[in-house]
Write a structure and sequence with these properties.
This protein is α+β, with helices and mostly antiparallel strands and 207 residues long. It is built from five helices and ten strands.
């Protein structure tokens, strides 16, 4: 490939995401599905944190999407409920690539949330059920005591999913791919669509 050619092809952005994600799973030493999730409060105050991608693709409802799970009573959960849109950022340092994704959010079904919650290790289920995520904790032992109480209450089998523990699907209206190139002459291509049922358009961006 010459310097004058873009390293980012014109293709379906979900297909390109799958290709890059597959390469990241082969090259990243830890959590290739880690992504920064940016939300904002109703007043517009932004916040960002790392979460894990737990589902993605065109089969996730009309327009496809990217799925993560959380305690809806946490700060991010409350911000999502107040402002149902967000941005995601994947940064794969080993590949020198980034992907930015923007769009509206919707909550997954209770059946989908149950299925993922009960696919997690039992201790992870207990830890989530015991946590008042993002709220003040007077002492770590308080949390550990709640974990122990749930272990005693449910000595075997799955833990009931708390009703406030759920998942959200981001259906993208914009996906931007960034590829590092020598001397910071980077490559950026942005795919956009007005609505989930619309086709994608794309353009290169100055780095």
């Amino acid at each position: 490939m010459s310097d004058s050619e873009s390293a980012i092809p014109v293709t379906d952005p979900f297909t390109l995401f799958e290709e890059w994600f597959g390469e990241a799973k082969a090259s990243e030493p830890n959590d290739p599905n880690a992504m920064a999730l940016a939300t904002a409060s109703e007043s517009g105050m932004p916040s960002v944190r790392m979460v894990l991608l737990k589902g993605h693709g065109t089969h996730w409802g009309e327009g496809g999407g990217f799925v993560f799970y959380t305690n809806a009573q946490s700060r991010k959960g409350e911000e999502i409920r107040a402002n149902m849109q967000a941005s995601l950022l994947f940064h794969w340092k080993s590949l020198r690539r980034q992907i930015r994704i923007e769009g509206p959010l919707r909550e997954v079904s209770s059946e989908q949330a149950d299925a993922y919650f009960h696919s997690r290790p039992r201790v992870s289920q207990i830890g989530s059920a015991a946590s008042d995520q993002s709220r003040p904790l007077p002492d770590r032992q308080v949390y550990l005591d709640r974990v122990a109480a749930l272990e005693e209450r449910y000595p075997e089998g799955d833990i009931p999913r708390p009703p406030h523990w759920t998942g959200f699907l981001l259906t993208p209206t914009a996906i931007e791919f960034w590829q590092d190139r020598q001397y910071r002459l980077h490559d950026r291509r942005r795919f956009t669509r007005p609505a989930p049922t619309d086709g994608w358009s794309n353009t290169l961006l100055y780095p």
